[in-house]
Design a protein that fits this description.
alpha+beta, NADH Oxidase, 2 domains, 14 helices, disordered C terminus, binds flavin mononucleotide
């Protein structure tokens, strides 16, 4: 397969990301050709495979159980769903038979699952040192390149992680449905999966590090990827006591064999199909040398007093892990049940928690996103629009009817109904344009990854408490931002998560 000719480079730093911004705001008209959807997984031929244990690890897991449980908890085919067809414009039931699909533990825009995971490990009994692709259909590892590539994928002096997990995105898999808008979803899904990986890995006794600033070019080359078909979005490093010890010098003595495995179906190239995505991706492959990390965004406070919330007791992975098996997107809206104040504190605390990443200051809190929310029905709290900061809700400087203005601006009836029924809508916001000016094109990607992290942590906290959540990307629109007063602060909402008590209904989901 000849490599794709890259799009022309834009000589003005930040120009490609700025040009992409309107395309990442709203999907265009959706193509109606489900018969042409590419399969939501990669399968390789001409390579050795290693089956993974399916049963979740308990007690002190051995190394294969750690790998099997981590990958099953990230991208495993763990749920079957019967989905009753509705008109996407009105939400009305359609007179058609239900469809059946398999779902994964973490959410994905339109259930397109564009993210594929690769693992680099050292030698262990029954597991030769190699770069593997996780085959979610067979729950097994396909060796795409022999040798120990951990050091090359995650260079750090004197430290070789037990596992390097590379998340990549297959651009066309989402774009076939959402076109240019798919790039935004894929960055958020990277964040979703990083939060999920941290939660699952820490529950297994691992320590985790996240690398969002890596130079993508050598990583793509090592994985044998054409960056305009499929490309790395984040790298995760992991240490676990059950991993086999790597002898001195062993990791450095990596045979750099060329990839031998072949994907059965090569993903389509987006270089010509999606010019804005291709251009922003090209400009984001490596950080600008003079990148300056912008200050955290802080929405301006309104006149009312800040409301301190009870201590958040769900921020840790152990507590969030209870949500992993329970989480599914609310598909039937929400019951009119008020949300408890402690639950609100737990959900917001989890969303705002720091993470083990490589941007400055993120151990304490996300660097690119701040959290705003619309409270409609929380015990003891006045409904309204707030920013969440340091364990307190700070009213936004907006008129009292701002929540109703947001509802009026939501064009799609199912989204409006969800918004009106949810006890809480959580909106990660970022100073996208200022960030792109100071840091470069890659800030777009980093901000959306952080948004995904925050959303998934909130969704897991909600699920752990018996609540449910659903991302509604279209609720994060110009009208919502206007009603929240965000443009005055140079801020943009990146997504919206509705949270509440789910209404039971005819969507059957179960854990295998
Ligand atoms: C980044 C992202 C964006 C999403 N946007 C929407 C959306 O705009 N509307 C919607 O109904 N669901 C949205 N979803 C939810 C997906 O449709 C849902 O995750 C998928 O159907 C799989 O179902 P599950 O979450 O129950 O596993 C989104 C999910 C993600 C991760």
């Amino acid at each position: 397969m000849p490599p794709t000719a890259p799009p022309a480079a834009d000589p003005v730093p930040g120009a490609a990301a700025r040009a992409y911004l309107p395309h990442g705001r709203h999907p265009g008209p959706l193509p109606q050709s489900p018969g042409l959807l590419p399969p939501p997984n990669l399968v390789h031929t001409d390579c050795p495979t290693v089956p993974l244990p399916w049963e979740p690890a308990e007690g002190a897991p051995d190394w294969p159980a750690v790998l099997g449980t981590l990958l099953r908890g990230l991208l495993g085919r763990t749920r079957a769903n019967w989905m009753y067809p509705v008109d996407p414009a009105t939400g009305a039931a359609l007179p058609a038979p239900p469809g059946q699909g398999d779902c994964r533990p973490a959410p994905s825009g339109g259930a397109r699952y564009p993210i594929e995971a690769y693992l680099a490990v050292g030698a262990a009994p029954g597991l030769p040192a190699a770069l593997y692709h996780y085959d979610s259909v067979g729950h097994r590892l396909s060796a795409v390149r022999s040798g120990d590539h951990r050091q090359a994928l995650a260079p750090a002096p004197g430290e070789v992680p037990d596992l390097v997990l590379v998340l990549t995105t297959v651009f066309w898999r989402s774009a076939v449905k959402y076109r240019e808008f798919g790039y935004r979803l894929q960055q958020q899904e990277t964040g979703v999966l990083l939060a999920q990986a941290q939660t699952v890995a820490e529950s297994l006794g691992a320590t985790v590090g996240m690398r969002l600033r890596q130079d993508d070019r050598p990583v793509d080359a090592l994985l044998g990827l054409d960056p305009y078909r499929q490309s790395v979005t984040a790298v995760l490093t992991l240490h676990h006591p059950a991993a086999p010890a790597t002898g001195p010098g062993e990791a450095q003595a990596a045979p750099q064999a060329a990839p031998t495995a072949r994907p059965v179906t090569a993903p389509a190239s987006i270089a010509r199909l999606l010019p804005y995505t291709a251009a922003v991706h090209r400009a984001s492959l490596a950080e600008r040398a003079d990148a300056v990390q912008p200050a955290r965004p802080v929405p301006a406070p309104g006149a009312g007093p800040a409301v301190r919330l009870p201590g958040a007791d769900l921020a840790g992975s152990a507590a969030l892990h209870a949500g992993v098996a329970r989480r599914a997107s609310a598909s039937n809206g929400f019951l009119p049940v008020p949300m408890d104040r402690r639950a609100l504190a737990a959900v917001l605390g989890a969303a705002a928690a720091g993470y083990p990443g490589d941007l400055a200051g993120v151990a304490a809190a996300p660097a690119a996103v701040a959290l705003c929310c619309v409270i409609r029905d929380v015990t003891g709290l006045a409904p309204g629009c707030y920013a969440y900061r340091d364990g307190a809700l700070v009213p936004l400087p907006v008129p009292a009817d701002a929540p109703e203005r947001i509802a009026a601006g939501l064009a799609a009836p199912p989204t409006r109904l969800d918004y009106l029924e949810a006890a809480l809508t959580l909106l990660p916001v970022a100073a996208l344009e200022a960030g792109i000016d100071g840091y470069g094109d890659r800030w777009y990607r980093l901000a959306h990854i952080e948004a995904g992290l925050a959303l998934q942590r909130a969704a897991l906290a909600a699920a752990a408490l018996g609540l449910s959540a659903r991302i509604r990307s279209d609720a994060s629109c110009a009208a919502t931002d206007e009603a929240l007063g965000l443009p005055a602060d140079g801020l943009t909402s990146l997504s919206a998560l509705h949270i509440g008590t789910p209404r039971p209904g005819p969507v059957l989901g179960f854990l295998v």
